[in-house]
Fold this sequence. Notes:
By secondary structure, the chain is of the alpha/beta class. It contains ten helices and nine strands.
Amino acid sequence: MKVVTQIQEYRKLRPAMAVPVGFVPTMGYLHQGHLELVRRARAENQTVVVSIFVNPTQFGPQEDLASYPRDPERDLALLEKEGADMVFMPSAEEMYPEGFDSWVEVGRATERLEGAYRTGHFRGVATVVAKLFNIVQPTRAYFGQKDAQQLVVIKKMVSDLNLDLEVVAVPTVRESDGLAMSSRNIYLDPNERQAALVLWQVLSLAQELWQEGERDAERLRQEMTLFIDAEPLARIDYVSVADSSTLEELSRIEGAALVSMAAWIGKTRLIDNVMLDTK
Ligand code: AMP
């Protein structure tokens, strides 16, 4: 497994790579969710490239950029075990040199949900992912359903800007009790870790109500809000039942619906979602 930190060095190596090239962008501090993406990429491609880059432009000024967990040595050992061929691990200066001043803005899909609470987040995400696509030149790129809106935004960018690659969505990997794996789970103390289960419990509740025939989206949002409010350590940012491609809030559920939420558990902000789909 080769570790590359310079864009120029990667560019020299790219022509000799066996295609298809599968690419997994990450911010590191890897867990089984990330590794599942790597496994999918390994199974479907000749070459697997993983990037580790904590992208400063997707963090707001009040967010956790400085404290975001990092453990590159452990990450590299895990990626080696999964059979990744190359890890691209640039510095912030390599990606954003002095004078950097071009941005990728995806439209309406970035205004809702996470976008409404994290100003500029998706501009940072779209910009860094476009840059990484241009550098890595992948055939396929793998993203987790855990960040459902990110997936919608990246797909839209790839389609609108005619980027020549396929975006592959990978289902959310969960702990045995249902908590979605996240690098940020490390912030939770034992009480908060227990309280954090409310996210999965309330998504399961939404799924049950839907399976029993509930199609009133507002009713689902209300039931979910009541359920989360009963957990004293949880504070809701949003609870959403939205169209799975436009992310517009639904009144009635007819096609596929994305049920998603963000909640603070103590000082840690967690997101999770499930798709309601007859398919
Ligand atoms: P991050 O390092 O948080 O930027 O995540 C890198 C990629 O891993 C993104 O495509 C995430 O959606 C994906 N990912 C993170 N957590 C999970 C999870 N629990 N299951 C599946 N994919 C995940």
